[in-house]
């Protein structure tokens, strides 16, 4: 028993050294490899850059038969196969981009037992031709990469992944390993259930990425703030900038280029050739900035991404963590920077309100957004909060996030919240006129703008009762009340409305602790009209 295990371990280690050229396994790679080589099922959760590939590539070489790797990353299959071929591993792929001749060659190699790894797109497994092909060969292992694509809540959902539960029924004797960088226990349970990985051993790595500095700043003029970040801290560095919309991707890329930063756009509205070219350039050239929607990034292995910047709020902590995880795979200091503002909350809440799907679906989206907002508004260490979200001990303050480096104050905002909610209440009674945050703040600050005089809002009892705070602070109050659900938005113009819990604040049954807005830079302050 011991001796056979020893022999196997050394077989795996030999492959690690001889084929891949590494001295030692990392983290729990070796445990996963041993378990899978022995024929066990595994569910592997490791952060991006953690080294998931070896967890199935080494068993693929040690076990008899071909390892079939299911991956949604069709655009990267050629690169993956080339990288393996370069170190002498016999690998091939079958997907829709390939011509018939190439396909026939791979099929023949598979049937002749001349492949170690065969990469397939998930939709291939819905085709009877492919299933028939697989039946005629000898399969030693199934690896399901990016396994979170089976989760219907995530933004990477691929319907074809649901079909993968049949692997177990059709090939009951073949071990399966599912891998992902998405870490919450909810996703983990969902993967195990949907893929029928009931017997699988779970391997969960630490999700801490100590070299990434997390920073979340109030959004003012996001493109200028971004440019300042790139000029001050990341001149000449490669990085990714995420925007919510295609239009904003285009504008931001143009803005950066106009300001001397080499940037390329990437979103699903660009044709496939342009996307492929931009992706290749980003991977191969130094110091390019990719401005993209979340369509970009999954499976991209570029070690020296020095920053990931978000100009819009991600929809979930899972998404935020995956996207920021693309920074600093080489272990060197990197920045995860997010600009976040009132408008983000308004926009995302509205998107959920108008989204398709049933109530349960909308509630789920709202719960994910709330966790993201809580991360933005926290006065605690961001990293500790992130890790705890993923079910890991947060530990003490990390010393490498904005709240650790520059601790924000929290203050008792109960009275401010009451003033704001009273204003919303007064405006809400003017049934046919609806007003957003701007009008409320003008009223609180006692500004006699045209819109204020026109609607006689200077006659309201709340007019001018909020001069102890500035405009930025008031926007912070609105944003945080929205984030906490003490205030809500409605309709196309972001009309503020009270919620069921607003009454608790108005009735003094609830205190509201708020995060103090950092000082605005002197230049913006002095140019601001009083
Ligand atoms: P993931 O798929 O988890 O994002 P990869 O499998 O692409 O990560 O691995 C990330 C990087 O780490 C790759 O460049 C890989 O070659 C390297 N790597 C993985 N395992 C080891 C190891 N045991 N020793 C040294 N480098 C490793
Ligand atoms: Zn910290």
UniProtKB/TrEMBL annotation:
InterPro entries documented for this protein: DEAD/DEAH_box_helicase_dom, DNA_helicase_ATP-dep_RecQ, DNA_helicase_ATP-dep_RecQ_bac, Helicase_ATP-bd, Helicase_C-like, HRDC-like_sf, HRDC_dom, HRDC_dom_sf
MF (Gene Ontology): 3'-5' DNA helicase activity; ATP binding; DNA binding; four-way junction helicase activity; hydrolase activity; metal ion binding
Known EC number: 5.6.2.4
A Pfam family: DEAD
Ranges where the Helicase ATP-binding domain occurs: 33-201
Cofactor(s) essential for the protein: Zn(2+); Mg(2+)
Ranges where the Helicase C-terminal domain occurs: 222-373
PROSITE patterns linked: HELICASE_ATP_BIND_1, HELICASE_CTER, HRDC
Catalyzed reactions: Couples ATP hydrolysis with the unwinding of duplex DNA by translocating in the 3'-5' direction
Entry keywords, A to Z: ATP-binding, DNA damage, DNA recombination, DNA repair, DNA-binding, Helicase, Hydrolase, Isomerase, Metal-binding, Nucleotide-binding, Zinc
GO cellular component, one term: replisome
Keyword ATP-binding: yes
SUPFAM superfamilies: HRDC-like (SSF47819), P-loop containing nucleoside triphosphate hydrolases (SSF52540)
GO biological process, one term: SOS response
Keyword Transit peptide: no
Domain of life (superkingdom): Bacteria
Protein family per UniProt: Belongs to the helicase family. RecQ subfamily.
Protein name, entry field: DNA helicase RecQ
């Amino acid at each position: 028993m011991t001796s056979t295990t020893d022999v196997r371990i050394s077989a795996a280690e030999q492959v690690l050294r001889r084929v891949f050229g590494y001295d030692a396994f990392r983290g729990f790679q070796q445990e996963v490899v041993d378990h899978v080589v022995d024929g066990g099922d595994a569910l592997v959760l490791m952060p991006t850059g953690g080294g998931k590939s070896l967890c199935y590539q080494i068993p693929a070489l040690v076990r008899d038969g071909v390892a079939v790797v299911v991956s949604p990353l069709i655009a990267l299959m050629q690169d993956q196969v080339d990288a393996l071929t370069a170190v002498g591993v016999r690998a091939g792929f079958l997907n829709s981009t390939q011509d018939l001749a190439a396909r026939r060659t791979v099929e023949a190699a598979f049937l002749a037992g001349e492949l170690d790894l065969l990469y397939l797109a998930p939709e291939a497994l819905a085709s009877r031709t492919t299933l028939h092909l697989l039946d005629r060969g000898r399969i030693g292992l199934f690896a399901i990469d990016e396994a979170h694509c089976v989760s219907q809540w995530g933004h990477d959902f691929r319907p074809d992944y649901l079909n993968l539960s049949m692997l177990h029924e059709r090939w009951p004797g073949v071990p399966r390993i599912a891998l992902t960088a998405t870490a919450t226990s909810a996703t983990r349970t969902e993967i195990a259930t949907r893929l029928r990985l009931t017997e699988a051993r779970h391997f969960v790595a630490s999700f801490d990425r100590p070299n990434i500095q997390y920073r979340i700043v109030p959004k003012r003029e996001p493109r200028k703030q971004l440019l300042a970040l790139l000029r001050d801290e990341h001149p000449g560095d490669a990085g990714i900038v995420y925007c919510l919309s295609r239009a904003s991707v285009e504008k931001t890329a143009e803005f950066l280029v106009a300001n001397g930063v080499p940037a390329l756009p990437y979103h699903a509205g660009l044709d496939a050739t342009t996307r492929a070219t931009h992706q290749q350039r980003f991977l191969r050239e130094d110091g390019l900035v990719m401005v993209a929607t979340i369509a970009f990034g999954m499976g991209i292995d570029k070690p020296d991404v020095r920053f990931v910047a978000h100009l819009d709020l991600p929809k979930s902590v899972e998404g935020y963590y995956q996207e920021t995880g693309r920074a600093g795979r080489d272990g060197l200091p990197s920045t995860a920077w997010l600009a976040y503002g009132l408008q983000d909350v308004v926009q995302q809440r509205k998107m959920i309100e108008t989204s398709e799907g049933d109530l349960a679906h909308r509630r789920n989206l709202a719960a994910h957004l709330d966790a993201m907002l809580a991360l933005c508004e926290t006065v605690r260490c961001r990293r500790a909060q992130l890790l705890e979200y993923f079910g890991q001990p947060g530990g003490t303050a990390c010393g490498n996030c904005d709240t650790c480096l520059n601790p924000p104050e929290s203050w008792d905002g109960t009275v401010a919240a009451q003033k704001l909610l009273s204003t919303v209440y007064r405006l809400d009674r003017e049934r046919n006129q609806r007003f957003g945050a701007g009008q409320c703040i003008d009223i609180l600050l006692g500004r006699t703008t045209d819109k204020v005089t026109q609607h006689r809002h200077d006659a309201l009892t709340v007019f001018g009762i909020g001069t102890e705070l500035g405009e930025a602070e008031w926007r912070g109050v609105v944003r945080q009340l929205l984030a906490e659900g003490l205030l809500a938005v409605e309709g196309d113009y972001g009309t503020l409305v009270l919620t069921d819990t607003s009454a608790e604040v108005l009735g003094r049954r609830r205190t509201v602790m708020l995060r103090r807005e950092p000082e605005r830079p002197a230049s913006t302050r002095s140019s601001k009209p009083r």
